[in-house]
Structures
1.
Amino acid sequence: LERVGVPAAAITADPAGFRTLDSVLRARDVYGLRRFTVVTQCFHAPRAVAIARRHQLRAIAYCTPNPPGPGGLRLQIREVFARARAVLDLYVLHSGPSA
């Protein structure tokens, strides 16, 4: 990001976000953000933004290319299950961040 001109002060990595829900809620609760850009692979971006919006946060996503080959395909298949889990977390279980 810095190579394309994003100031280092505008970049926050979340080393304790063990899943997307964690990272979104930590953006709000730990880093104090109400608006942010998620930088992630394209297959993952819609889920990250949907989780943020469900929590009344203004998020957009910048998509990086999906990993090529079998590894990328595995991640895309995993995303199907991750989206189902996100629906359960957001609309059925009303889950908070992981412990």
2.
Amino acid sequence: LQAVFLDMDGTLIESEGLWNDSEAELVAELGGVWTEEDHRRNVGNAAEPVGRYIIELTGAHHLTPRQVADRLYARFRTKLAEGAEVRPGALELVRALADSPVPVVLVTSTERSLIETSLKRIGLHLFDDSVAGDEVAANKPHPDPYRRAARRLGVDPARCVAIEDSVVGVTSAADAGCVTIAVPNHVSVPPREGVVFRDSLVGMDLDWLESLIVA
């Protein structure tokens, strides 16, 4: 095992509900209605693709995807003032990895400006590196975020474990060649060859992660 890559929203922190509330409020302001199905379709996506979706949903073509994304981020940042709730087992896993010789890297679709606030209850300082959504050529579900994380460490993706909660994230990690663990949260993740499924992060430790790497 050469590294462990961790997604943030929905995997380490319970922020998807905050995103949903922010999206619903913005869509209502623009004259539309945001449903659970709309949220499900956008779980794990970066802000600008969500912005494009909202423009098509509401007909707000006077705005650019970036402008919608900025409005969405402003609402989300307000809701995140105290940091998001931590998912069960997340803090224990991150601390165990931080105390180990194996590098742990945050790989998130969220833009850099929100990461530290989002992780206030865990601490970004526990990670050896982090890759944000606005620092990659193509965001999840493209494999670039995980390839970039591996490249910066100088490691082989096939000897890295990635932990994700959404279809978008699992696709990104698995297509990058990482050993991928799916811990579905707000949306179901269909079976995929080579992807390991867990109900939660509780009890996950370094020895088990190491056992997933094929010799």
3.
Amino acid sequence: MHEDRAHSPRVMLLMSPSTYRAGAFLKAAADVGVEVVSVTDMPELLREYWHQDLAVSFANIEQAFPDVVRLARERAVDAVLSVDDAATELAALGARELGFVHNSPDAAAAARDKLIMRNMLANAGVRSPWFGVHPVSGDPRTIAETLEYPCVVKPIRLSGSRGVIRADDTDSFVAAFTRTAAIALDEVTDGSDPQILIEEYLPGDEVAVEGLLTDGDLHILAIFDKPDPLIGPYFEETIYVTPSGHAPEILAAIARETADAAAALGLRHGPIHAELRINDRGVWLIEVAGRSIGGLCSTILSFGAGMSLEEIILRHAVGMAIPSFDRTGNAVGVMMIPIPAKGLLREVDGIDAARAVVGITGIEITAPVNYPIVPLPEGSSYLGFIFARGESPSAVEATLRESHRQLRIQIDPIVSIASPTPVVAR
């Protein structure tokens, strides 16, 4: 932050139009007195409709970069921050050009690319599963003969467990590879041959870590347990609860592995979100991202005298004081409501009954009614979110499950209408 400027702190937020996070960051900015300059990943023709300051393509960094830097200088911003994964590399490039404290662009890229991440973690000695990579054009049956099972098939760059599938033998690997390859190809716009990551399946409990880096030092903000068994074949996350119930020595190991992973990738500044697994072989880093927790999950977190996670991130980005990093309140949790089937969402009934369960603090149905919805592994969103608070993590988990049981979700199949056979005049 430039202390000699007369204006209020000002941050440039890079946001995808579909992100869940925009509202939370904009509210936090208003609460803390930070002005926002918004840059959105959308065609220019939609800019005025969405009231954005700038519209660019996050996928075309070379073209977007000069526009982002020009606007940042015109508006005298104090920080450039990506709200989600899509623009972390662009934000790092912009921050470097503008002279702000930042993650290096290489570190931002490594935290988005699972293959680069795996190589860097292994080279740094961070405990890692075995892994390999193959192009989607490869022959899955030939590849299958070279593997140990069980293993996991992943796209290189997608997030949120999209396209991540467990395989237990040759036949299930062929099916998983084929399905993941189709998902990866669906994201390609330049005709390239995307790569598929194949790695060891790690059994055990899974946790998520929310942290904040300052000059390479990691401050753990929250460790979430994931009580549902994430054993595959798909890895849809559902329930997060905090504080974690793991023993202090395990929590310390989680913090060490997360810090080591961030250092291995070169992440030094700003929020991180990590996923780890714990088994009898130790604590294993699955992934670490250079951004904060996704969805609406941050809603359950409160720090100090009622600061949100987004407020802490914004204060940190522009150099404002952070009164406290201590989480306040009892145990809290969130359920990311899974999409149970592909089809048209017609109705979600029982919301009042679900909200009335003691301990529930809120329910948000984010999927639009009368629109198609798609579950994992092809899908990339949730039906909505349930939030709860209680005396213990186990009580919060039970509350979330009871609330979810009250919901009645109506999904109609999508009926394909065959094109009529043309009538040919004779």
4.
Amino acid sequence: MKVLVIDDDKLICASLKTILESDKEITVVGLGNSVKEAVELFYKTQPDVLLLDIRMGEMSGLDAAEAVLKMQKDAKVLFLTTFADDEYIIKALKIGARGYILKQNFESIVPAVKAVNIGQYVFGEDIVAKLPELLNKSGKNSFESYGISDKEQEIISLVAEGLNNKEIAAKLYLSEGTVRNYLSAILDKLNLRDRTQLAVFYFKNK
């Protein structure tokens, strides 16, 4: 697994490289210290996971992530930061990051990178615990204004609860195919990419 590490502190970059490469499955293919280097090195090295700091001088890691995700929609971006800042967490989710963990929890870095690499979403327990509350504060537009029907709203709420398609189908007495069609239509209406962004939408607008 190839990992690209970006942090404006060169010492932290070196430390992260040591931590990551203590696992034989991980190779750090590049180290960078700025948003510009993040984008350039991502294009050059094509890593499986981009491990990215948020606060980096005038521009943030969020800017780098947005640029990378525009270039490659399925890029796997994992934010690693010392700041559990509400606004940063919301923005990270909205732009399609696969995870947001705190540097202080260094023992979770390798497992988090591995989880993101296989397609999972990873958020530290402290962040998950505050997510519903902080997202509720960020806006309360009505579902109707997005053209979302009652049935679609019901499906969105179940996605936000963490249910998979099979579980949603059983709960609503629908087929899995029908649930998939509903979800596809919902994501289309809201211009969202995946279930995580859909859960964010729900918490913002319920």
